[in-house]
Design brief:
The protein has 428 residues and is of the alpha/beta class. It contains eleven helices and 18 strands. The chain is globular and about 65 Å long. Bound molecules: guanosine-5'-diphosphate, 6-O-phosphoryl inosine monophosphate and magnesium ion.
């Protein structure tokens, strides 16, 4: 039994789903612990592409129990479509269970997300507009609707009687569509019927699994730098993607968790607004975007691209207590003459050098990256499966990341396919 958290080390889209899918083979249970359908997780196997927003990527292995934990926020319509799509493709979803404690993203949350972005004018967060922030606001404000509420008609009705006038007041003020209690009730009823069979007290499942020494894989969404506490606030998401979130978002005490694997791209991408110290606004950034096919899975937006930031990665290693790194998309560099790694930041106002990530964000806009340049390998590595078969310069690049972060690179991904992977030390 080695319970492992897989966490995004950067700003999301690091390739977490590929790593989860890979490791699911050896796990008994896979659990999503935070976030909602803002996540877009892509798995490529046997030439087929699967895109997940809410369902754990482990679902592709028959017999694995997949859980959507209490820390997530669920748009029932999106989940329902996702389930249907999987069933259509012949994937068994009978081992999928949803926590009754997870909060629901309802139509007014989407409207409020849209409105919030609109009203921020020049300071937009660049959210996915999936209603994530407003759903978590209600959770923390204790006015949320949870999965369990949709099976309790009277309770749901009386909750909406209090909540909806508050939401409508804001929407009306900005001239937006307001919501009738009945339409929300009908929406909930529609999905209560559909999702009912999947709702189960997941603490019972995980309790028994832990007792039997089974292996649990925790699937993070988003990434460390999007963490509501430790990320580049306010340009973050509204949950805790970091490893600590795995415990609160699943109801599994952290003493049961043995390992934390941080997934990092060999470069960095970011969707949405906010500081990005190693961002490239030149041809090299364009090349990364093009070769890496850096378009958001959820919104289709172009991802901003930049060089690997080892200062941020060290911070991420500390915040998450990383025991290993999964380094993805290193093949994107195959045609590059040289590659760069940011080893420090320098304040352009006074020359002050930061070797450690400054978590206070006001200074970020003054920071410039200090780079170490390494020679590229200019060779197709997508067919390589052993570390020792990699070109020397690719090995050097990986070892440099290890030495700069102080964390072993256990997995290196050289392509989107499940098999396009070099495992030096399997965390499970
Ligand atoms: P996630 O949100 O962290 O799960 O990542 P996404 O699925 O949003 O984005 C990662 C993208 O990169 C997906 O399209 C994957 O199929 C793809 N991918 C994952 N690993 C590799 C890799 O090693 N090389 C290449 N070229 N693509 C990869
Ligand atoms: P996965 O799990 C990349 C970003 C949005 C925006 C910020 C807040 O696929 O890695 P939100 O809708 O969460 O309120 O938006 O967070 N964001 C992501 N960026 N990958 C994701 O998920 C993301 N989920 C949210 O672009 O900047
Ligand atoms: Mg993604």
């Amino acid at each position: 039994m080695t319970n492992v958290v897989i966490v995004g080390g950067q700003w999301g889209d690091e390739g977490k789903a590929k790593v989860i899918d890979l490791l699911s083979e050896k796990a008994d249970i896979v659990i999503r612990y935070q976030g909602g359908c803002n996540a877009g997780h892509t798995v490529v196997t046997d030439g087929k592409i699967y895109k997940f927003h809410l369902i754990p990527s482990g679902i592709l292995y028959p017999g694995k129990i997949c859980l959507i934990g209490n820390g997530t926020v669920i748009n029932p319509e999106v989940l329902s479509i996702e389930i249907d799509n999987l069933i259509e493709k012949g994937i068994d979803t009978s081992n999928l269970y949803i926590s009754p404690l997870a909060h629901l993203t309802l139509p007014y949350h989407l409207a409020l997300d849209e409105l919030s972005e609109e009203s921020l004018q020049h300071n937009k967060i660049g959210t996915t507009k999936r209603g994530i922030g407003p759903t978590y606001i209600d959770k923390i404000g204790r006015t949320g609707i949870r999965v369990e509420d949709i099976f309790e008609k009277e309770a749901l009705s009386s909750k909406l009687e209090i909540i909806l006038p508050q939401k409508n007041m804001i929407l009306e003020h900005y001239g937006k569509k307001t919501y009738e209690k009945q339409e929300i009730i009908e929406f909930c009823e529609k999905y209560a019927e559909k999702l009912g069979p999947y709702v189960k007290d997941i603490s019972e499942i995980t309790y028994n699994a832990l007792k039997q020494g089974q292996t649990i894989l925790f699937e993070g969404a988003q990434g460390t730098m999007l963490d509501i506490d430790h990320g580049t606030y306010p340009y973050v998401t509204s949950s805790n993607p970091i490893s600590a979130g795995a415990s609160t978002g699943s109801g599994i005490g952290f003493t049961h968790i043995r390992k934390v694997v941080g997934v990092f791209k060999a470069y960095v991408t970011r969707v949405g607004e906010g500081p990005f110290i190693t961002e490239l606004n030149d041809d090299e950034g364009g090349k990364l975007q093009e070769i890496g096919q850096e378009f958001g899975t959820t919104t289709g937006r172009k991802r901003r691209c930049g060089w690997f930031d080892s200062v941020g990665a060290r911070y991420s290693a500390m915040i998450n207590g990383l025991t290993g790194i999964a380094l993805t998309k290193i093949d994107v560099f195959d045609s590059f003459e040289q590659v760069k790694i940011c080893t420090a930041y320098q304040d352009r106002r006074n020359g002050k050098v930061y070797e450690n990530y400054p978590s206070g964000t006001y200074v970020h806009k003054y920071l410039e990256p200090v780079y170490e340049t390494m020679p590229g390998w200019q060779q197709d590595i997508t067919g390589i499966r052993e570390f020792s078969d990699l070109p020397g310069n690719a090995q050097e690049f990986i070892l440099k990341i290890e030495s700069l972060t102080g964390v072993p690179v256990e997995i290196t991904s050289v392509g989107p396919g499940r098999e396009q992977t070099i495992i030096r030390n399997c965390p499970i």
